[in-house]
Design goal:
This protein is an alpha/beta fold. It is built from 15 helices and eight strands. About 40% of the residues lie in helices and about 15% in strands. It has an eight-stranded mixed β-sheet with strand order 1-2-4-3-5-6-7-8.
């Protein structure tokens, strides 16, 4: 039976969904998502014999959102997951992440192999620390309108996204990231949403009740907490210097949609082909044909089957 509660860990209050008994599995969502984004995975993985916990990540939903931008580095977000495992009374866990949750999962496995026994990442490839700070690298390459850059100035993206939260969530979840030009690059004067359309048809996987859940949550929380993750991109690069070239040796799994420009475009395209260099124990690289960025919601059955098979084999 699915339950929810709030638990203290790493000096914040973490809201979580929980179901099942057995080895612990943490599900880490991305932006702009919530623990609810794992609604199809939680019961399926629990039924397969696992204790599944999906938190609202730091700054999202009903979890604490510290005011300090510097409180959203990978050290903080990974620290939350390490502390959560202990607060749940466990010593080991498998960790799964989607979108921004994927870097948390990958780095959790990298930083604390004694805690995280297996790792799966959805939509965002494993870490490959570049030669320079990400934002500086973009500028040096002549790129000035990538969405990471648009998200940097506090208050700018918040004002746009919070103007009409229902329209924002319909646009972001309905559009996905299938068209890199439309979703990853920001045209002057148009903002991140471009030309949002109130009568945009919902994709089949997103019900009105689902859209209402996300909308009501973000109307209460706002978007600043999640956007602060992007404001630590360069700082994350600085903090992870000791792990330059490091590998993740635990059993690993990667899943993405073939129409997700996050993996085909600027961010991840180059890292898909050679991820085995970072993941020498990669068990499967699953690219789901026709799926977009919200892969665990769009193609739940295929994602569930892959995750369950992986988690069982990793025990």
């Amino acid at each position: 039976m699915l339950t929810s509660r709030t638990i203290s860990a790493n000096d914040i209050e973490i809201f979580l969904l929980e179901q099942g008994e057995g080895p612990l599995v943490l599900l880490c969502h991305g932006w702009p998502e919530l623990s609810y984004s794992w609604r199809h995975q939680i019961p399926a993985i629990a039924a397969a014999g696992f204790r599944v916990v999906a938190p609202d990540m730091r700054g999202f939903g009903r979890t604490s959102a510290p005011a300090d931008i510097l409180a959203y580095s990978l050290f903080d977000t990974v620290g939350d997951m390490v502390a959560l495992v202990a607060a749940l009374g466990e010593k080991r866990a498998a960790i799964v992440g989607h979108d921004w949750g994927a870097p948390v999962a990958w780095h959790a496995a990298l930083f604390r192999p004694d805690v995280f026994s297996a790792v799966a990442g959805l939509s965002v490839p494993p870490p490959s620390r570049g030669r320079g700070r990400p934002l500086k690298t973009l500028r040096d390459g002549g790129i000035t309108n990538f969405y990471w850059q648009y998200f940097q100035a506090p208050g700018v993206a918040e004002a746009e996204l919070e103007r009409d939260v229902g329209l924002t969530m319909r646009t972001l979840l309905g559009r996905g990231f299938s068209d890199a030009a439309a979703s990853l690059f920001v045209e002057d004067g148009k903002g991140f949403l471009g030309n949002p359309c109130a009568d945009r048809p919902r994709p089949d996987w997103l019900g009105e009740a689902d859209l209402s859940y996300f909308t009501e949550a973000y109307q209460k929380s706002g978007f600043r907490g999640g956007l602060n993750w992007y404001r630590n991109l360069d700082r994350n690069w600085e903090l992870t210097a000791p792990w330059q070239g490091a590998q993740i040796h635990q059993p690993s799994l990667f899943i993405a949609g073939s129409k997700d420009s996050v993996v085909t475009g600027l961010i991840g395209g180059k890292r898909i082909a050679d991820m085995e260099r970072v993941l020498p124990n990669l068990k499967r690289k699953l690219i789901i044909e026709g799926a977009g960025h919200w892969v665990q919601q769009e193609r739940a059955a295929e994602v569930n089957a892959a995750l369950i098979a992986f988690l069982r084999a990793a025990q």
